[in-house]
Amino acid sequence: MSDVIEIARIELMTHVGLTEAERSTPQPIVIGIRLILDIERGQRDYLGATFDYAVIDRVIPTALMPAPRLLETLAERIIDGIVRDADCTRVDAIEVSVTKCKPPLELICDGVTVTLATQLRDDSAAAQS
Fold first, then answer.
1. Which among 30, 28, 1 is positioned nearest to 14, based on CA atoms?
2. Which residues contact 47 (CB under 8 A, 6 or more apart)?
3. Which of 55, 68, 82, 99 could form a disulfide with 73 if both were Cys (CB 3.0 to 4.6 A apart)?
4. Stated pTM of the model
5. What is the mean pLDDT of the chain?
6. Rounded CA gap, 115 and 97, in Å?
C-alpha cells in the first residue's frame, strides 16, 4: 500500500497565458501537488523516512521563470524540479495540478485545471522496497 503527501493549495499571482495581453497582468493560480510514496514506519520524526516537502518552496519560483505560456508547461516544470532537487528515492509517482482561477473565457466560470502525473518507480520496484 502506498502513502500520500498532498500539498493542497499553493496560491500565487503569476504571469501565464498564450496572448501578450493575458501575460501582461498577474493572474491568480492554485497549485496542488500529490506525492505517492512509501513512508518508513517506526522512524520517530526522522525526515529521511519520508519526503522533505520544503523543497517545493524552492521549486515553484524556479518553475515560474521564464513565465510559462501554458499551464501544462508549469506543471511539467514543477515535476522536473521536484525530481531534480529532491530526494525522490521513496517516491513512486508525482501528480501536479495547476488551476488558472480566472481564465479570459466567457463561459468558464470556475477556472481551468491541468493535472500531469509522472510515474517514477514501477509497481514491482515499489513492492520490493
1. 28
2. none
3. 68
4. 0.88
5. 89
6. 4
